[in-house]
Amino acid sequence: MRNLIGLLLIVPMISWVLKEEPYIEEIMSYAHNFLNKSQKFYFGLMAMTQVISHFLLFGVVPMMYHFIDRFLKDHKGETWENFKGTAILRGFGLSTMWVISIPSFIFAVEALEATLWKSMVLGFIFALAGTVLSVIFSYYQEQKYGMDFSFVLKQEIEKAMRNSRNQGKWNKDVAEFVFLFVSLFGTIFFVHETTGLEFLLTIPLVILVWTFLYFGFKKRLSNFVVETRYYFSVGIAKQAQQFSILVAAGLLIYALNQSNVGDYVINGMNFLTGIIPLLNILFLIPFIVILLGFIGLGPLPVIVLVTGFWRLCHFRTHLNCCISRYFWKCHFYHFVTFCYAYNYIK
């Protein structure tokens, strides 16, 4: 839990990089041939939300909404708000299944001792399936509203292309964004493999050095100083609620481990699964996720709590009697996050 607090403190520094150049606008302009239909645009918006969440984490939702709202500034109303809002929320909900910088994902992988790259691949497959399902829903929603989004989107994309600062086939900003993405997360994997540090320590250390080097190469160290001062004076205070909820979740997990309450809960679940042959502990986990979501907890504390509870169950029960231990560790996180993301997909 201590490492998770450090991760939450450092990871938002990645967002400073996206403020320096209009990367998102240039990517949308560069991919104009792919985004010329409403379903393609919806898919691209969800995909972009998941990619940008590597850098902005939870801040990707207001940032992407602000961007797409400016992009479609002349088009308001319920239909467009539904189109924009559902794509961004669904994209963020699915990003928690495979994005390495999302604290809940990396915490669950470390806690369950799963293989990171396999967890990311499985999470990406589930996220891709959820994205396709969301596009299908959006198609029927568009038919219900009786509007032609494709015509409007094509006009707005043409305007964005005319305003782009990279008019040729080679887009410098897109190439730079790809390099930044690969260099950051490639370095994280490289440092982890060479030093053996756990990811909860590797990620913050790499982000600190990577962010400083970016501003150094751009010769904008003054901007780095300004962002640092603002973050430590104002930005951290905005995360107070998130930190306090996370600490409370950690205390609850510790209390369950130190008391007999956890035994009572697990014995009760085992009793239910014993008298109902078709019932499995995994069938009960979604109801815990739904309950925590209803009382206002976000994805991070939900995953931390459920993962901690799962570890408690894992050490005190014999779930591997029917299936290998590795299968449970590798797929449990995606099972839980899919339950949480399903609320966004709907």
Q: How would you sum up this structure in a few lines?
A:
This protein is an all-alpha fold and 346 residues long. It has helices at residues 2-10, 15-18, 23-30, 38-56, 60-71, 78-95, 103-112, 116-145, 149-163, 172-195, 199-217, 221-235, 240-258, 261-275, 281-294, 299-316, 325-345.
Radius of gyration: 22 Å
- Straight-line N-to-C gap: 32 Å
Query: What's the tally of helices?
Result: 17
Secondary structural class: mainly alpha
What is the count of β-strands? Answer: 0
**What's the helix-strand series?**
HHHHHHHHHHHHHHHHH
Helical fraction equals over 70%
Low-confidence runs: 315-335
Mean pLDDT over all positions = 77
Principal-axes shape call: globular
Largest sheet: none
**Residue share in β-strands:** under 5%
